[in-house]
Amino acid sequence: MRASGKITGVKGMNDLLPSHKQPELRTARWQEMERVAREVFHLYGYREVRTPAVEHAALFARGVGETTDIVQKEMYVFEDKGEELLCLRPEATAGLVRTYIEHGLHVEGLQKWFLIGPMFRRERPQKGRYRQFHQMDIECFGAAEPAIDVEQIAMLDDFLSRLGVRAELKINSVGDATCRPAYLEDLRGWLRARAALLCDDCRERTERNPLRVLDCKNPACQPVLAEAPRLIDRLCDGCRTHFDAVKAGLDALGVAFTVDPRLVRGLDYYVRTAFEFSSTALGAQSAVAGGGRYDGLVETLGGPPTPAIGFALGEERLALILESIGRETPEPRPEVFFVSADEAGAREALRRAGQLRKAGIACELDPRGGKIARQFKHAERVRARYAVVLGGNEAASGQAKLKDLETREETPIALDDLAARLTGNRPA
Ligand code: HAM
C-alpha cells in the first residue's frame, strides 16, 4: 500500500496480464506452459487434482517439518474465528497426501496426480522468488520401485525439452531411516568441530537440521563443507541398490544427469532419491524444479504405509527461462476485425461476427463504433489478420472487401463466403 491512499498489489505477488511490461508475466506465456504440461502429464498417465489453497497449519508442521525454513519462517498463518490455525499452502505435497488419506485412495492402487496452482511463502522477494508463486506439482502414490523415479524424472526432462529448455539435472540419495540417523549424528559432530569456520546460519542449522548445512550458499563456508562426510558414501544396501537402479534407468533413457552428493532439499520428508533441475538463466534462484521420494509421509500424516515420489516446477522461473531463450509467445489474435461505417454496418458486423464465431473463427469489432480510423487502430492493436468494413451498402448487397492488414491488399468477398474463405486460409 502507498501513503497516498492508492492501494497497490501485495509485495512479492504478481499480476499476469495479456500484455504485461515484463514479458514473463504475460498470460499467453503461462497458457502455453500449462497447455504443454497438461499434454505431457497426460501422456504419462497423470490426472489433474485440485485442492484448496488453505489448509490446517498443523499439516505442514507435521508434513514438511517443524525445523524447515518454510514452517519456521515462511508460512502465512491465520486464525479462523475460534477454529484451529489455518494457513495458505506453502507447497502442494502435504495437501495432496492429506487428500489421498482423506478419500481413502490407497484401496484403489497406484495414484498418479498433477496439480497446477498458487503456493505462498513469506520469503524475501527477488528475481525468481515471490511470495505467491505457482507450481506444477506431480505426485505418484503406491510405487516403491526405482522405475517410477526414473519415469518421473524423464517426464520432467521431456516437458522441458518440448519447450526448448536445457536445464541441468542433479540427483542424489538422501538415505532413509536405516542409514541416515547415524550419518546425521556424525555430520553434526563434524560440523560442531568446525563451527568457528562456518557462518551463523550454518551453526544454527547444525543443531536444528544438519543436512541443510550442506546447502549453504555462503562462499566462505564452501571450502569447509566440501570436505564434509557424504551420506552417499554411507548408504545402506537398500538405498544403494535403489540409487544405482535410478542412475541406470536414466542412462538407459538417455537422460543426462550429474550426481551431486551435496544436493539436499529444503523439506524434511525426503528419503532416497532427491533431484533438481536448474538453469543458469535464473541467477541466484537457479532451481526450476525439484523433488524426490517421500516414502514415510503418508504414514506420518495418519495414512497407511505408502511409498510415494513427486516433484514441483516453479512456473515463474520457467517463464523467466523461456524469455531468456527467446521462445516466442503464441499470442491469441483475431482472424477478422469488422469495422462499421454506420449503424446498419454495426448491426451487420454483430451478425456476421456471430456467424464466424459459430464456425470457430475468432473475430472482433469495436463495440464503441465511431471513427473508422480509430476502429482500424484498434484492429491493429489486437493484431487482427484481416479487416472488413461494413456499412449500409455492404449489408444490403452482401458484398464487401477483405483487407489483409499485413500486406494492405484488398480483395472483394461475398460475406456469405467469409467463413469458408478464412478456414481455407488457415495453416493446415
Ligand atoms: P520446492 O523445491 O520447495 O519443492 O519447490 C519446487 C519449485 O518451486 C522450486 O524449484 C522453484 O522453482 C519453485 N519455488 C519454490 N519457492 C519459490 C518462490 N518463493 N518463488 C518462486 N518459485 C518458487 C516443493 O515444493 C516440493 N513440494 C516438491 C515435491 C513434490 N516433492 C515431492 N513432491
Give the key terms.
five-stranded mixed beta sheet; 428 residues; eight-stranded mixed beta sheet; alpha+beta; binds histidyl-adenosine monophosphate; 16 strands
Strand order of the largest sheet: 1-5-6-11-10-9-7-8
Radius of gyration: 28 Å
Assign the structural class, choosing from mainly alpha, mainly beta, alpha/beta, alpha+beta, or little secondary structure. Answer: alpha+beta
The total of beta strands comes to 16
- Beta fraction: 15-25%
**What is the typical, i.e. mean, pLDDT?**
94
Blueprint (SSEs and pairs):
Blueprint: H1 27-43, E1 47-48, E2 54-56, H2 57-63, H3 69-74, E3 76-79, E4 85-88, H4 93-102, E5 111-120, E6 132-141, H5 146-162, E7 168-173, H6 180-193, H7 200-208, H8 222-225, H9 237-253, E8 258-259, E9 271-278, E10 287-293, H10 297-300, E11 308-314, H11 315-324, E12 336-340, H12 343-358, E13 363-365, H13 372-381, E14 386-390, H14 392-397, E15 399-404, E16 410-414, H15 418-425
Bound molecules: histidyl-adenosine monophosphate (HAM).
